[in-house]
Protein 1
Amino acid sequence: MTKALITGCTGQDGSYLAELLLSLGYEVHGLKRRSSSVNTERIDHLYADPHEANTRFFLHYADLTDGSSLAAILYDLRPDEVYNLGAQSHVKVSFEVPEFTADVVACGSLRLLEAIRRTGVRCRYYQASSSEMFGSASPPQNETTPFHPRSPYACAKVFAHQITVNYRESYGMHASSGILFNHESPRRGETFVTRKITRAVAQIRSGLQKKLYLGNLEARRDWGYAPDYVQAMWLMLQQEMPGDYVIGTGDSHSVREFAQLAFEAADLDWREFVIVDPRYFRPAEVDHLRADPSRAMNVLGWQPTVRFRDLVRVMVQSDVEQLEARLRGGEDALHQLALGEGRFA
Ligand code: NAP
Ligand code: G4F
């Protein structure tokens, strides 16, 4: 049975990747961080009793800031594939906590690569690189576009990307980077702009929120659907040769367009509710990201399956349904049940 290790397993992408790998028959090991409150909501449905003989999903405490924990887990598990998705992944927050962001994103990736090298584990490695690395480079961006990072997060991702290339070239590691453009889903973190908008639409529709405060409405992003993107990660590690691939839809839209469509999906006019608040502006902005994913399409045979309009509709619908369930008290009941089973110990 192929064994995979995922850092960032509790995040949006980690949860979809764990699902994909389990569906392919893998044994999946995820890293989780110690936190004072529950941080496993996205993967609770995958939980299985580790005492059961046929369990294939396991969680381990570790942290990308703690190299010895990474080395110990690698040494014990000896995985065939390692997916490094763990990150302080919020660009705006990276301006507030630049040193921590660099520690987790840049040094964390180096720690993991070095732990693989030092333990002698022969595995294939995936690095979660980001279109943020292109920063102010003109669209469309592909694998040959020069990087011009515009935030501490993006600078840290450039280091993580380059050190992955360096370990591939220096030590012959099967190490690949996916340069992924923005990808969203109902599991997207609640402070990224898409989810912030779709949650607000649900709340405003139910009379629980009056206004939505946003930052730069003119920024353009190439927004895709997260489950498509974890498929690309897996495909990269199935190639005979490692390499770097841009993953995106090839279309871009503004934050304003996203907001307009999201409110329309609930029969609301966004102009009545959205207010621009400079508090959400960034010290340096990335104006326009649009992928040229030709290489991934030609070499990996990868294609996005969900386009912009459907993505917006799916996210609004999910937030509306979640809110309605919560209002009926369903979520609290489920949460209490989960705690009662003691599965977060
Ligand atoms: P996410 O939802 O923010 O998930 C990040 C994950 O990293 C979470 O599991 C988080 O754990 C974990 N993490 C944070 N700090 C850590 C630490 N010190 N040690 C170990 N784990 C840590 O991000 P995502 O959207 O799934 O993205 C996955 C990866 O792809 C990230 O590296 C991100 O930077 C990159 N990326 C994302 C996109 C995108 O559009 N989504 C595009 C390009 C690249 P907690 O749950 O405990 O916080
Ligand atoms: O949703 P965002 O916070 O995503 P951003 O900065 O593009 O970063 C995401 O995608 C990257 C890939 O390109 C990942 F590497 C990264 O980890 C993350 O997943 O912001 C998108 C745009 C920005 O231009 C921002 O200025 O939306 C603009 N925006 C406008 N109002 C806002 C808001 N962003 C947020 N988070 N909140 C606002 O109120």
Protein 2
Amino acid sequence: MRYEVEYLDPEPLAALQLQRLRRIAELAYANVEHYRRAFAAAGITPADLKTLDDLKALAFTDKETLRQNYPFGMFAVPMADVQEIHASSGTTGKPTVVAYTRADLKVWSEVMARSLACAGATDRDIVQNSYGYGLFTGGLGVHYGAIELGATIVPTSAGNTRRQLQLMQDFGSTVLTCTPSYTIYMAEEARAHGIDPRRTTVRIGVLGAEPWSEGMRREIENAWDMKAYNIYGLSEIIGPGVAQECVGQCGMHLWADHFYPEVIDPHTGKEVADGEDGMLVLTTLSKEATPFLRYATKDIVSMTRQVCPACGRTSPRISRIKGRTDDMLIIRGVNVFPSQIEGVLTQIEGTEPHYQIIVSREGALDNIEVQVEVNERFFSDEVRLLESLGARIGREIETVLGIGVAVKLVEPKTIARSEGKAQRVIDTRKL
Ligand code: DLL
């Protein structure tokens, strides 16, 4: 399935974006107190949005804005027009609530269908959807998209891994949608029950909702004999279906006809050049129920507007999520991203991609302990070999981070598994 809008030249795309932006800005301004104040603070009204650049006058919105307006303060339409509500749990504060009108659900279905198609899925595929159904947007978002695409959807949701594996074999699922960490867990469970995941019919994974690395991709593709594609999204903007890798696996195509991207230097608030890292800021161009103007995602990416060498789409591409401005740990004054540690671990033979980073403070000194699972074969080896593996991991992490960490090798299957997003960092510091 080819969606022409993904191949628009820059000028017609910008014209479409501006036309949609003006409508959504009017709606937000007329109905949401927060935006009325934001426009007033910038000294403009939606009528002053003559170009896309004029948007830059507005301050960012973020999760805190949603919390302050809990539960329905950001809604731009009457409740009678709201068809579906989602909320993200979040670790602190109140949940963040987002809503969809009937038209929003159509847009969501469309961008998710486009994402699945971009990964190579068609109406002949059987999509086993192991993202959680419920208030999390992963399950229902992928569900709507698969239906829109005309594929067969198997709504297994997350969990009950043995049953997932059973159904996968019996139904002949060809596309698996879940978090990358869950695919690894499923493969382990499969092997533990005498099933070779490489022999299943699954050919494509559409994986996201949490950070992962190229190393994990190799691991997953090898374990399943499938292609693993990265999908990005966030509840505030629509859920899954904001950006998606194509068969070239060279960045995620961002559906810029519905979501207007900026990449911002978090320190200066100014846009960075293409190819440079910054925080992704997104403006929803068609969402009616909870429109977001300049939403600060806190996700760090770089962006390119070059035509994709693999598929010819012109839609801008974002890199893997390189970290978050707020999961960045500051350890003894050094900025540390968990993804840097994962990058080292996936390069080292003998370790499994199951790890946890424990941050603690002794007196004034921050410490990191990296707990990492060692594979069965290594674990049954001599203690001396294990010790040298631990020392090597420690050295390599130190080279990348510039600070020393303690490494603790643990037995296979001892780090808690997650059916959804893996919890990688346990920060016990009272900061
Ligand atoms: O995780 C939506 C989603 C569902 C995306 C299924 C992809 C697949 P939230 O729970 O609101 O929504 O979490 C959004 O998750 O700001 C990122 O920090 C992170 N995230 C999402 N996709 C990726 C990805 C869903 N592919 C937050 N790589 C975002 C890295 C991701 N991080």
Protein 3
Amino acid sequence: MTDPAPTAPAPAEPAGADATASDPVLAVRGLSAGYDGIAVVHDVDLTVGAGEVVALLGANGAGKTTTLLTISGLVPKLGGTIEVAGEAAHERRRVRVADVWQLARRGVAHVPEDRGLFFDLTAAENLRLGRPARGGTAVPLDQILAWFPALEKVLDRRAGLLSGGEQQMLALARAVIGTPRLLLVDEMSLGLAPIIVEQLLPVLRSIATETGAGIILVEQHVGLVLTVADRAYLLSRGRVAFDGTAAELRGRPELLESGYLGEA
Ligand code: ATP
């Protein structure tokens, strides 16, 4: 991104009941994934519709990060299919970190657990690294600052000097400035006070609704994330133990409990 484009992307249709079926931005079928040929994620089916917020939940080691990394192509899949906006993703070879721009061109933005910021660059310079998707335009800086107003006063500050909350806002802002179709956010709340998480989750909800991006949130604040998510997947030992609406999962605390105790 050099200069932000003058106009905001057209708002998408709100996610309707059949958004997932009719307009999936992500369709994962029978995914197995892992390391050195050993699967830690097994036979996962997962879809995300345009404008949908989907929570990916589960105990430590359940396979949430591995699933996100495999969708991005940063970890090669061992089996199954991954389609982003109807296109088969990275079928032929492993995508290296250097290929993250390719990801952005395909319309995928990934905010990793460590946020992936360039600490020696200013916040504004980090934002300029956000790349628009193929055929897309960058979100104007004004819109970015409307979503993340705390960034305005720190644009000229080096990212390494920002607070944890400001760094997370910057990482999210850099991810969404390129109008991704699919946004993957891993443990946004790591190291953040719950009040910051409470502020940021509704912002992500608005971004999904206003831009039509589909968002997957891996989040340890389960109660909070289920208040903004449309649907949820609960992983247990690498397999989907629950797949349904966030409201349904909120009403089944025993399922969450067993999922987090590793018994689901
Ligand atoms: P957490 O909530 O603790 O981050 P998670 O649900 O994201 O957990 P993953 O990080 O995907 O789980 O890990 C799933 C399994 O894969 C675990 O058993 C983990 O030890 C293993 N694993 C993760 N990364 C690697 C790696 N680079 N090499 C080998 N095994 C790994």
Protein 4
Amino acid sequence: MYIVPSSTAYNISRRLANILSCNVSNVIRKRFPDNEMYLKIIEDLKGQDVIVIGNTRSDSDIIEYLLLLDAVKEEEPQSITAVIPFFGYARQHMRYNNGEPVSSKVFTEAINIYADKIISVELHDEQTLTYSKVPFINLKIIDPVYKYFLNKNIDYVISPDDGGYERAKTIASKLDLPAYYINKKRIDSKTVKMELPEVDYSNKNILLTDDIISTGGTIVRATKLLKENNANKIYACAIHGVFALNSNEKIEKYVDELIVTDTIETKYSNITISNELAQAFRNKVKI
Ligand code: R5P
């Protein structure tokens, strides 16, 4: 068995390879003078079970990932499992307006050409799963998150919006803590007001959980509000640390600790999802 890593997924590939006791394949990468991407897998993958791991956060990530899948398929492996810890282009999981593409369908269908199974993590919307003809697993990451906070003296787990309340409740129940969510009210097209639930925040340590941190606006606004209400420590934790526009630098000024998983490899990736990926690969997760 081999893991073929994209350039965005070296650390997580090594962690998964350790758990599954398999090899990480060597990939040569070059750019042609016109900047087109070239890659070559060194190992002979004929008859092997192969996991191809990569994110699809940027356009270049997507090209690399598709080239890797094709290179692997040409080797005639026994099976290909596409592991995409952060499935980018998933925001557009449906057509909101005429003339728009359904980007998560485009990419899912492209992967279907190559893969026997797809594993991803906390997709933006589960509608993306319906675009796949091969089994597509969307992992929810709970255990490594709550375990990280076991000894942090957290008082409440809070989601910055109602959409993340289920996640907050599940993590809170594992920590035997109450969970709440912040009510977001749209005042006009540019203004969203956040309203905290009526709870005593004085000197409380709060775990703010979200699926994704992109511009950081959501986490920063929630943190400011909690601090205005005399909260003590704010731990901001998300599954995917996209950190668009270097928002991590802004967030660090407000929160006491910023933690994300290694779906995207950042310096805040103190939680690994590799055990969950291994379990899903071994078919221990229901589809
Ligand atoms: C919203 O539905 C999501 O759960 C996140 O709260 C949101 O995408 C975070 O985005 P940003 O970091 O740009 O505020």
